[in-house]
Amino acid sequence: MFQTEKFIATQAKAIESAQVLAQLAIENAKAIADIHYDATKDAVLATQVKAAQILAIRDVKEVLGLFTAEEAQAAVS
Questions:
Q1: Where are the alpha helices (DSSP H) in 1-77?
Q2: What angle do CA 50, 51, 56 make, to 5 degrees?
Q3: Nearest to 67 by CA among 52, 55, 50
Q4: Low-confidence ranges of the chain (pLDDT < 50)
Q5: Residues 6 or more apart whose Cβ sits within 8 Å of residue 41
Q6: Rg (alpha carbons) of the chain, rounded to whole number
Q7: Concatenated DSSP letters of 29-45
Q8: Which residues contact 54 (CB under 8 A, 6 or more apart)?
Q9: Sign of the dihedral defined by the CA atoms of residues 16, 19, 25, 27, in that order
């Protein structure tokens, strides 16, 4: 009978550990989603600003002058 009780206690600890790990995974997934949301929001805002600037320009050369090499690299990656 002692072995049964020991087995049950071990299984209870395993279930508890699994629940803790699942909760941690959920929290980490939420943190990653928040990071992606913030990055996407920033990208959309930057795109809106550039689009507004482009719409206000009448000369093609001015449009090309709006974009720096760093911005082009960020858009590609």
A1: 2-56, 60-66, 69-76
A2: 100
A3: 50
A4: none
A5: none
A6: 26
A7: HHHHHHHHHHHHHHHHH
A8: 63, 66
A9: negative
